[in-house]
Structures are given as structure tokens and as C-alpha cells.
């Protein structure tokens, strides 16, 4: 499974980003352009994941790593974002509400 840091994510902002946090977490603040597919529903919505390369993020990295491992095994070109949205915010990068 591939992974990147939030700094690397910030530098490659054109790659689609899937946020697997739950809706209330996403609404509290998310990275601009991120699409929310909650962890609790992602298996039922797998057809919504991009066919092209994409990144997946959660709050701290556990849920996104789990999703990324499973999608990678299924043939998706997915990269996990280490440290998640918490690390993004800690670095001072902006979020939308």
C-alpha cells in the first residue's frame, strides 16, 4: 500500500481525495475538494471511488489505511494519507466547513 504525508498531499492538490470520516466529522472541517464516503458506508459505495489514482484520508490515519489496503488489494490505484486530517490541521493547512 502506498502512502504520502500531508505535506506531500498539499503539494499535489490535483489528485482526487476521498475523506472516509463520518459525515459529522467531515462537516466539522475537511480539505477543500475532498469527497466524503464515510467509513461506515464505503463498502456499499465502492463504485463511487475514482477509477484514476486517488488519495484517501481520515482523522488520524487508521480508517483510511484500512480502506486503502482493501481497495489496493482490489486493484485500485489508491494512496493513504499518513496522519490524516489532524496532521493536515496541525501543519496549518486550511479546511472548509
Automatic annotation (TrEMBL):
Signal peptide: none annotated. Residues 11-97 form the Rhodanese domain. It comes from Microbacterium horticulturae. PROSITE patterns: RHODANESE_3 (PS50206). This is Rhodanese-like domain-containing protein. InterPro entries: GlpE_sulfurtransferase, Rhodanese-like_dom, Rhodanese-like_dom_sf. It comes from the Bacteria. CDD domains: RHOD (cd00158).
Amino acid at each position: 500500500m502506498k502512502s504520502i504525508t500531508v505535506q506531500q498531499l498539499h503539494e499535489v492538490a490535483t489528485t482526487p481525495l476521498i475523506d472516509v470520516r463520518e459525515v459529522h466529522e467531515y462537516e466539522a472541517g475537511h480539505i477543500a475538494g475532498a469527497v466524503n464516503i464515510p467509513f461506515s458506508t464505503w463498502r456499499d459505495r465502492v463504485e463511487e471511488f475514482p477509477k484514476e489514482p486517488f488519495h484517501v484520508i481520515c482523522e488520524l490515519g487508521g480508517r483510511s489505511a484500512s480502506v486503502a489496503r482493501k481497495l489496493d488489494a482490489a486493484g485500485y490505484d489508491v494512496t493513504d494519507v499518513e496522519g490524516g486530517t489532524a496532521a493536515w490541521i496541525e501543519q496549518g493547512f486550511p479546511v472548509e466547513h
